[in-house]
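Objective 1b. Sequence-to-structure analysis of HTH luxR-type domain-containing protein.
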Amino acid sequence: MAKVPSSGLDAPDLGDDPARHLLAARELLAQGAPIGAVADRLVAAGGSAEPWALRALRDAAAEAVVRGREDEARRLLELVLRAGPDAGVQAELADIDWWLRPAGSVSALTALARSPALPPVAAAVLARRLGWHGLVDDAAALLDDAAPTGLERAITDLWLNRLYPSTFPDRGAEPAVDAVAATHPWLRPTAAAEAVLQGLHINRDALEPLQTALLALDDAEDLDAETPWFADLLASARSSASRTAEALLTAARARTELRRGELHAAEELAEVSLRRLTPTGWGVLVGLPLGTALQALTEQGRHDEVADRLWGQLPPALGRTPYGLVFLRARGLHYLATGRERAALSDFLAAGEIQESWGVSFPGLSPWMVDAARAHLALGDTQAARTLADRQLAVLGGSRPRVRAGALRVRAATLAPGRRPQLLRAAIELLEQCGDRLELARCLADLGWAFEEAGEPQYAPAPLSRAWHLASDAAAGLLLREFAARGLTGPPSGPADDARLAALSEAERRVAELAAQGYKNREIARRLFLTASTVEQHLTRIYRKLGVRRRSALASIAGLAPAVEVVRPRRSRNHDPQS
């Protein structure tokens, strides 16, 4: 055999002789050349059954996957199979196919799960894919039969526990699992989730970290789709060969818009994500975009469209997952909005029973106590509503401002009208911080109606005007119908005088707006970081400039209702979603 030059990288003259290419590949491997260069020579040689060559091809395929070159990885693995059947290689090929076309790979995955020669590591990965598609029993049987150990088994156990808390119990008491949970970044609590996403490059191995971190941030109310790292992730996903990561990130954007009260955007993004993958491709994760779309439609008052989609074909295992909670809540909210309060209450209580059976709660995804309290109110059971609202507030402590605001709003509704404003103002503060415009509109509306019912109608126009504008801006048909039922088909009008208001300084305008909403001097001082005496001085000048004698007259000036603006959320930085 002719001698090969000492540097295989500089050997363009090897011709078509497979032996020369094979010799060059061996020499490159011995020299520590990049594995891709070794694989190029092995491809030119037509492959080899020698163990070192097979290992080099598989290593090069793994590197190609990391770099997002799945087609190249597939060619290399198919070359390995020329040497003979190998269940491990077949599993790697099936996993690449799943990444590229998840819906079309389910039958191949289930067939592969029955292979007696499947290596333990491949079995662990395959079990996660089966879990994605709701094939829970198959995943459990595979893990029992193949009995994988080590890192892949620990990751698989933890991931399946996050997805199916009752089916795959937490094995955190085992030292090996504890060690993995402590060191593997995407299995740590919420505090690490954003750090994981910031450093993530989208490829097949990144999908589970992406899914887990997004779920944790969503439940913790810390998901923000407008950060630079999110844009980088989305760009990386769009450049990959798979649609799965892009679909997940688009669904996450829909969740962000829904939490901000941007109903059209939430609906459109959720629908886009549902079109990126088929229902089969989504697996049990379909509950997230579907539930988001249905909730956005319900809030817009488009109830017929929701009803048409409630009973579509869904994975039977969906109800065992946190994503099932999202769908269950959306269905319950639809029932509540359409006068089926008992059906709604049943769904909300079922969500609570599911979480209690898991021993894990997801209040950001499924605030079942607040939802059930609202259903009890609709049924006239004030005491049950009060009990659940108090329980929710006690459980949350200082976490999850949206859920706390919702609980405060429900709790206020159980009180006499004159006692409601204090709790509603506390809820409004939370919502202004986190940027939920729709729930803010509800609280402002409740505040205005509380003033009317308490015999202080002079304070009602300002919060009602702002609430109406927010609801109109969000196309919140459900809330706008409630306004209409109370005789309000537009913002409350009053003798607003733009010229007079223009005379106010910016600081005076802020004080006047709060005073018009019924805030007391001490409350205004606390909100604006002023002293009480400064507030009094501002009010004196405000009265003079506006030509009024008392603060109650401010409420009749509709122009003092704060302008509708996009409220930017302040990051809550809270806590572990498993709290």
